[in-house]
Design goal:
The protein is an alpha+beta fold and about 750 residues long. Among the domains are: about 5-75, Alpha-Beta Plaits, CATH 3.30.70.100; about 225-310, Calcium-transporting ATPase, cytoplasmic transduction domain A; about 425-615, 3-Layer(aba) Sandwich (Calcium-transporting ATPase, cytoplasmic domain N), CATH 3.40.1110.10. It is built from 27 helices and 26 strands. Helix 3 (about 75-110) runs antiparallel to helix 8 (about 190-215), helix 7 runs antiparallel to helix 8 and helix 13 (about 375-385) packs antiparallel against helix 25. The protein is elongated, with a radius of gyration of 34 Å. The structure holds adenosine-5'-diphosphate and magnesium ion. Adenosine-5'-diphosphate binds next to helix 16, helix 18, strand 18, strand 19 and strand 20. Magnesium ion (MG) binds near residues 635 and 637.
Amino acid sequence: MRTADEEKIISIGGMHCATCALNIEETLREIPGVKVANVSFASEKANVKYDSNKADQNALKAAIEDLGYKFLGEIDEAQAERKREEELRTIRTLLIMSAVLGSITMVLMISNVLMSSGLSMQLSFFILFLLATPVQFVAGYRFYIGAYRSLLNKKTNMDTLIVLGTSTAWLYSTIVMLSPDSFPNPEVYFDTSAMIITFILAGKYLEAVAKTRASGAIRKLIGLRAKKAVVLKDGKEVEVDSDQVMVGDIVVLRPGDKVPVDGTIVEGTTTLDESMITGESMPVEKGVGTELVGATINKTGYVKFQATKVGRDTMLSQIIKLVEEAQGSKAPIQRIVDKVAGIFVPTVIIISVAVFLFWYLFGASYFGVTGDHLIFSLILFVAVVVIACPCAMGLATPTAIIVGTGRGAELGILIKNAEALEEAGKIQTMVFDKTGTLTIGRPLVTDVIPLKQGIGENDVLSIAASIEKGSEHPIGKAIVLEAESKHFQIPTAEGFETISGKGARAIINGKESILGNRLFLSDAGLLSQSVDRSMSDHETAGKTVVAIAHGGEVIGFIAVADTLKPNARLAIEELKRMGIKSIMITGDNEATAKAIAAQCGIDIVLSQVLPGEKAAKIQELQEQGSIVAMVGDGINDAPALAQANIGIAIGSGTDVAVETGDIIIIRDDLMDVVAAVKLSRRTIQKIRQNLFWAFGYNTAAIPVAAGILFPPFGILLNPIIAAAAMAFSSVSVVTNAALLKRFRPSGR
Ligand code: ADP
Ligand code: MG
């Protein structure tokens, strides 16, 4: 049977914490046919890849709904946003309600105003009960539902802890209220239960606000879409919605218009502001035959263009999809966090029960606790349960990934997934392709050198141009360009063929004609010592020399020179400062390669590497124990990009080849490679800080909550303070991640 893999990004509603996401993920993975499932609590989405012969959306839906979550399907960002806003409003209403009732309860209890104004104890307790109970079961309803559902699935989550902690306080207080006489010193803790719920809701609320803000990058990208387009229909200009433009339509652009879809100019010239897509702030000039990208802005001219990509195929849509996928993907570090989070809740429950038993059965009397030992032990139990909620833990990594990839997209640095984002910061060796990556990739002919009596420069050039007429290779293009500028007749060639990394051949006037480097000459048996020496003579100052042979004889050479990209040297220097070793890889000969490498400050050169061997060279470097990135233009170095730990495709400009590379740099600026590494390092740093906050905080606070400071100092952690601290920890983690938005690469 044919396998048909399908990949879907599905929105899920009703997740309360990272363990929810984990539980859904596990369940999805158990569905037969599902190959990959990543669920992100932060983006509230699942990335699922499945074999459509064995599984379908309904199976996913059923599984998600069985767990008690909402299957929202493939919704677009606008819908997702509405859902998020709805959720935000609900939480806010519940929060206000529980904050009001909770604080009244607390004030009444602290001031003891009820009993001192003459009410009986039982009546006072009853009033407090009336205030705290709606908080417990209306505002706290979602926690009960969450805990119940995960219990059904024999799992635990954050809700389990909240329910356990607050219900203990509420239930104990209610029992005391019902029969105060059976307790030696009757006291209630309705403020504890109500305030814990209030604080947790406050944390949830702030977290939801921050989450919306963190996902702002996608919203921004979506906001870039043009709403209207002017299309030519039967010679008339008609305004339509931009999603109605079809491939092949002729679209009219006036100055100031937003380009509605991708296409090619068929009439006119103009300058465009492409900064929203490429991050490049300089306007770009375009004329007939050049490509336009949707969402960019036409500045000066009046042009007509033919739509080539519309709807989901446009570059903007591709970028949105890529960023969305990246934001929902999981960083390797997250797997460790998930493992810990998975055992955290049960462990906490065990610890809290142990704490309770220890103090109740032994500790309280041993350490001379005054008052009711049962109450004392219960309070410690509640404090441990509450403080240990692994909420911040689950947010630490995903929020940083969301903000990091989002910020990257804004800068024209598209990071394909969280793994790439994490790995890029660890790069030790960066291998650069020469032509088109370090150099501009548009070489120009500098010298034409005839070698044979009776043959002039023009003869060499015309034969060379004839061979290369159909060539896509930059050297070929340079030769054809030069010949065309001289306006002489270029003889027609037959049987044109290129030999990757070596040269090209064709038949001209019935004679076998070849053009290429030494490897190619030697393959053809034409590489004599004198030819070799003459080539070397011209291989100075980084020029590339190719030989031309016609009818089995070398007739001359052509030297071409490419210029280094403006920021090449700066980028290599910066990488060196960052401890990254740069290597140049090229199919060009050693002398030329070394000269170019020296110009940009690279010490290690791998020359005369055929395109097919580049991947093997990368592998060699990896086998030497290095984390290797390959930077290329993605044209003939795709295998090397794929082999490297991180493939960085640069300067894809308006033609993003999303399949190539883990990181795609839209602008043709090598400093963005540096920026990508820096962004990655910053993101990892944020993740570490966040994990430290979350883990450090949970683990450091558990012993305090368990009463470890009580024997020496008499210090106990009030469960209400524990709840406040927990809420604060989640918020601080999300806020810290949001700071990544301020990331600014040097020089931009
Ligand atoms: P790079 O590794 O710099 O991208 P390539 O692998 O494309 O370079 O080519 C390596 C060398 O092979 C070139 O420097 C040139 O000498 C020769 N070569 C390959 N194809 C052609 C061609 N079509 N015309 C001229 N020379 C070519
Ligand atoms: Mg190349």
